[in-house]
Structure formats: C-alpha cells, structure tokens
C-alpha cells in the first residue's frame, strides 16, 4: 500500500512538479520560493521611520519587484490560489529573530478592516486570510474590533498628504472595548505610507492600548529603485 502511494506521488511530482509561485522555477516543495526569488523578495526588517502612534513596523517581503503580482491577483482578481504561497512565506520566516521580537508580549492582533461594501464586493478580507493561520500557530488571537466607517477610494494613486485627509476619522471600534494595558499587533497586507495603520492605531490608543505595532506582508520602505 505504501509502495503504491509513493509511486502515485512520484508520478504526480513528475507530471506536475512544484514550482516557485513567483517565477515558476521547479522547487522542492509546493508554494516554496526558489532560492533566487527568496533572495530577491524576502526582507524581514524593521522600518526606521515609524508613523505615530505606532511603536514598530516589520515587513516580511518587498512589494515592487517582489510580492506585488501575487497580491494583485488576490485583491483585484479574487484569486485565492495565491494564498498558500503567502502563507508559506509567513511560515518560513516565523522563527526569524525580528519576527519573534515583534511578537513578544503581544496580547492579540487586529486586521485592517475593509468597508462593508468592499468586503461584500470582494467576498473576503485578504489580510485576515493571509495572517489567520500564522497568528494561530503563534497563539495570538485575531480580533476584528475595528470598522471602516466610510467607503474610501482605492488609495494606491494617492500620496501621503491626500491619504491623511481621506482616512482621517475613517476607523472606529465596532463596540466599546477596554484595551488598557494591551499590547496590540496590527496586521496588513501592504504598508505604503503608513497612514492606514496609523489611523487604526490612533483608535486603539484612544481605547487604552499600551502599545501598537505593525506586521506587514509587503512594503518598500528603505528600498532604492533608481
């Protein structure tokens, strides 16, 4: 029986070998980045510029010349087939010293919320799908305690000043909650100017949170694209 199973798996591997989700190079395991793409894309580091009132911002990958194509497929094409690759990336960096440092002492995580209309249109909050299994493995609860009160335009075309105007007062708590003494982690798929997570953090601090940090799947801070 084991022989037949191993034979079947060998045939499947031969016919449909696992490929890097970024460049399609053949790799050892499914959803694994090849060595070239891992070196090009992975960036597990803290931002030197942190928007108030956030304490730390850690990214896992580059966005441009990095995870942008996969994130676009998820967010704009509703292609859930790219999710396992993102989850694999988080698993692969889960014991990185910077990740462990960020997660130390965290009480729970909060995803950046979508507006109800956008959530209905897309059918899911991509940030929740990306991070829920990773956080569960770290025994960090994921709590949806924030709402997006206003349906804002897509922000990728706006600079920081415009984003600050658009997002001011957009986020609120779903219901009254006492966060005194809590250390909270905001999770988001992309960290660009930091305006979105900053506005979320302001609400959490007003509710009594002691410390708010951010974990982003992708960001371009510190990159030189010249």
What report would you give on this structure?
This protein is α/β, with parallel strands linked by helices and 226 residues long. The chain has helices at 2-15, 35-41, 63-76, 83-92, 97-103, 116-122, 126-137, 160-167, 195-206; strands at residues 42-46, 57-61, 108-111, 146-148, 171-173, 183-191, 211-219. The strands form two sheets. A five-stranded mixed sheet has the order 1-2-7-6-3. Strands 4-5 form a two-stranded antiparallel sheet. Helix 4 (83-92) packs parallel to helix 7. It starts with a helix and ends in a 7-residue tail after the last strand. 31% of the residues are buried. The mean pLDDT is 91.
Give keywords.
single chain; 226 residues; alpha/beta; Rossmann fold; five-stranded mixed beta sheet; 17% strand
| CATH level-1 class | Alpha Beta
Task: List the uncertain runs.
Answer: none
Structural class estimated from helices and strands: alpha/beta
The fold-level CATH name is: Rossmann fold
| Order of secondary-structure elements | HHEEHHHEHHEHEEHE
Strand order of the largest sheet: 1-2-7-6-3
Rounded mean pLDDT is 91
How would the blueprint of this fold be written?
Elements (H helix, E strand, L loop, with lengths): L1 H14 L19 H7 E5 L10 E5 L1 H14 L6 H10 L4 H7 L4 E4 L4 H7 L3 H12 L8 E3 L11 H8 L3 E3 L9 E9 L3 H12 L4 E9 L7
Parallel strand pairs: 2-7, 3-6, 6-7
Antiparallel strand pairs: 1-2, 4-5
Helix pairs in contact: 4-7
In short, what is this structure?
The chain is of the alpha/beta class and 226 residues long. It contains 9 helices and 7 strands.
